[in-house]
Amino acid sequence: MRIRDEDLTTACVAHGTVKSVHLPTDRETDRMRGFAFMEMSTESGEAAAIEALDGAEWMGHDLKVNKAKPLENCSGGRKSW
């Protein structure tokens, strides 16, 4: 079963308004990479979703839910001098 954006939105809407969902896929296989990004409209909704869903079983998967960390260095290549 392929998880859709709508599935994640439905799972989180009880905790607040979902602003966006992104399910990254592998460029070569088009298969999901096993994680997702979700943006909630408020910090309280975000905290409630994390509290409720971290460690929960959902659609046959054990969830690990946390706040995304910002990328430190997005250049992806050599450091420029």
From TrEMBL:
Top-level taxonomic group: Bacteria
Single GO term (MF): RNA binding
RRM domain span: 1-70
Keyword RNA-binding: yes
Keywords from the UniProt entry: RNA-binding
Protein name according to UniProt: RNA-binding protein
Biological source species: Leptothoe spongobia TAU-MAC 1115
